[in-house]
Amino acid sequence: MAKNVGKNDKTIRLIVAIVIAILILTGVLHGAWGWILGIIAVILAITSAISFCPVYKVLGISTCPTKDKEPSKDKETK
After folding, report:
1. Under a CB-based contact definition with an 8 Å cutoff, are residues 42 and 17 in contact?
2. How many domains does the chain have?
3. Residue 21 covered by a domain
4. Is residue 23 part of a domain?
5. Is 42 within the bounds of a domain?
6. Using an 8 Å Cβ cutoff, are 54 and 3 in contact?
């Protein structure tokens, strides 16, 4: 399972999850919306913690910075 969630993405996911949790715990969100957004908050927190998002994998998205590989030393220029 390769990481596909970058640092900024992780931070945003965690902040959104915390805000949703606070809204639920203070009673602003309740009923069906509270449950739905609560589940979304848990998913956001988990994907933030493990740096992997299955939806990103399916869509071929990655917000992780990529390290440019050095040019191959196998190819010699003459």
Report:
1. yes
2. 1
3. yes
4. yes
5. yes
6. no
CA angle 32, 53, 8 (to 5 degrees): 95
Flag whether 54 is in a domain: yes
Look at the block and give the residue holding tokens 């992997």: 52
The token pair at 10 is: 């992780």
Q: Which residue has 């740096």 as its token pair?
A: 51
Specify the pTM.
0.78
Q: Alpha helices of 1-78 — where are they, by DSSP H?
A: 7-25, 31-50, 54-59
Question: Do the Cβ atoms of 4 and 51 come closer than 8 Å?
Answer: yes
Low-confidence ranges of the chain (pLDDT < 50): none
Rounded to whole angstroms, the Cα distance separating 16 from 59 reads: 22
Amino acid at 1: M
